[in-house]
Write a structure and sequence with these properties.
55% helix, 194 residues, three-stranded antiparallel β-sheet
């Protein structure tokens, strides 16, 4: 399960976090605000003050006030990205929490991944690029979500994902592969569905 490629582990972490964000976005029961004014207004209610919102977004308080009053409507790319990211992070927290709870206790989630899978002992199953879609058990889903929420290292997340996929795909029903070590490299795509 060990991959010495730290850049590859960081890429896997980024793809996992992005996949979880996309999966959560599909669960929203109402669309998130789209305009800069609506996003500022929503974030201002979450944050409490214009000053704290300005600090969160990395802009001046006057900039926040201009968007709130409607004097400015079109943000620069950096601010637009920050508004989108922060709005999605705050939007419908109960819906996201319920989905995580379901995944961790009863449903698990589905991981779709295209990556190079290698194995501890090379044999007839030599490592190669694979396109895998697998249902991950609730216990593995709970571990991955908890690790993400507690800021696990790239290495820890890599090992959790590799173990979850190994159990669900490569070690199904034992089949003499109970001790199979799986490593993931060169991740091209990683999607998650709750």
């Amino acid at each position: 399960m060990i991959n010495d490629n730290t850049a590859g582990r960081a890429l896997l972490r980024d793809k996992l976090l992005d996949g979880l964000r996309r999966a959560e976005r599909t669960l929203f029961t109402r669309p998130a605000p789209k305009s800069a004014h609506a996003r500022m207004k929503f974030l201002r209610t979450c944050e409490g003050t214009s000053k704290s919102l300005a600090e969160r977004l990395g802009v001046s308080r006057k900039t926040v006030d201009r968007y709130l009053s409607g004097a400015t409507k079109k943000p620069q790319k950096r601010l637009q990205a920050a508004l989108e990211q922060e709005t999605e992070a705050e939007w419908q927290p109960q819906v996201r929490a319920q989905a995580r709870q379901r995944a961790a206790t009863s449903a698990g989630f589905v991981i779709s991944i295209t990556a190079y899978f290698g194995f501890g002992s090379e044999g007839s199953d030599a490592g190669r690029m694979r396109d895998i879609q697998v249902a991950v058990s609730p216990s593995h889903a709970a571990g991955i979500l908890a690790a993400r929420d507690t800021g696990a290292t790239d290495s820890e997340l890599h090992d959790l994902i590799a173990e979850a996929i190994a159990d669900a795909y490569f070690r199904v029903e034992g089949g003499g592969r109970a001790g199979l070590k799986v490593r993931i490299e060169a991740v091209e795509r990683l999607d998650i569905a709750f």
